Amino acid sequence: MHVHRYYDVDVVNGPGTRCTLFVAGCEHQCRGCYNQSTWRLDSGVPFSLEMEERLLADLMDTRIPRQGLSLSGGDPLHPHNVPHIRRLVKRVRKECAEKDIWLWTGYQIDELNASQREVLDFIDVLIDGRFIEAEKDATLQWRGSRNQQLWYLR
Ligand code: SF4
Questions:
Q1: Rounded to the nearest whole angstrom, what is the distance from the C-alpha of residue 104 to the centroid of ligand 1?
Q2: Whose CA is nearest to atom 3 of ligand 1?
Q3: What is the mean pLDDT of residues 12-19?
């Protein structure tokens, strides 16, 4: 899995103060996508064990308390990313149990296959659906278009 950006302190992508990881790879090609540079799976840089350790350490850093982790992109549930994301969220759930995990995907929840669904077992909130320009609404919180939905899984 490749990643585009990592914010160790983020107050925009989800509630509270968070760590946010933007992964590479997205097959949805939404018109008006704000993040086209993330579409290619080989864009960005490889997600290394060092980056993972830093992310876990940031989540547990008591000097700047983080509410949780946000996973966006690109698409964290692109089939290529799923094994890596599943491993990461499983680890965060185990080692940072009190932190919440939010994940943005371009798939609709009812389109997810069995392995993509396994990721849902470890996250708190899923925001699903492609970005549809005709349904764009700047007043929405945490999503860009009205077709996208927030699923509180825990
Ligand atoms: S799902 Fe998100 S990243 Fe992918 S094309 Fe649509 S808006 Fe862009």
A1: 9
A2: 74
A3: 97
Burial class (CB in 10 A: 0-12, 13-18, 19+), 15: middle
Q: Tokens representing 137?
A: 């609404």
State if residue 30 touches ligand 1 by the CB under 6 angstroms criterion.
yes
Compute, in angstroms, the gap from residue 73 CA to the centroid of ligand 1.
Answer: 7
Give me the CATH number covering residue 102: 3.20.20.70
Q: pTM for the full model?
A: 0.97
> How many domains, in total, are found in the chain?
1
- Reported as a single tens digit per residue, the pLDDT across 70-103 is 999 999 999 999 999 999 999 999 999 999 999 9
Report how far ligand 1's centroid is from the alpha carbon of 61 (Å).
31
